Amino acid sequence: MHLGRVRGTVVATVKTPTLGGQRLLWVEPFTWAREPEGPGFAAVDRTGAGPGTWGFYVQGREAANALDDKFNPSDRAIVGIVDAVTLEARGAEGD
Questions:
Q1: SS3 35
Q2: How many degrees, rounded to 5, is the angle at CA 39 between CA 51 and CA 37?
Q3: Three-state DSSP class for 82?
Q4: Using one digit for the tens of pLDDT, what is the confidence trace for 49-68?
Q5: CB 27 within 8 A of CB 8
Q6: 44 and 24 Cβ atoms separated by less than 8 Å
Q7: How many CB atoms lie within 10 A of CB 77?
Q8: Number of Cα atoms under 13 Å in the Cβ half of residue 81
Q9: Is residue 26 part of a domain?
Q10: Which domain holds residue 14?
Q11: Residue 42 belongs to domain with CATH number
Q12: Count of domains for the chain
């Protein structure tokens, strides 16, 4: 799973039938340390997330499996809303 922040919505007047009724959001990817990580992208929303929401997303086949109809072209899907991220300091041995 990957961390991202919803930046807005994507409007598509025509979509493939397997994406009918699904919300599309514009997501900016971040590392788990909340540092930007690459360009933004459109993702199918499975959580009711809105602009400014931190969430985690899956990509590839896992994204397609997140929808009811598994035979769809989605490549990324938001599957959870993040309430907090806590990172522990690494020890001297890197564990």
A1: coil
A2: 90
A3: coil
A4: 999 999 999 999 999 999 88
A5: no
A6: yes
A7: 22
A8: 10
A9: yes
A10: 2-81
A11: 2.40.50.220
A12: 1
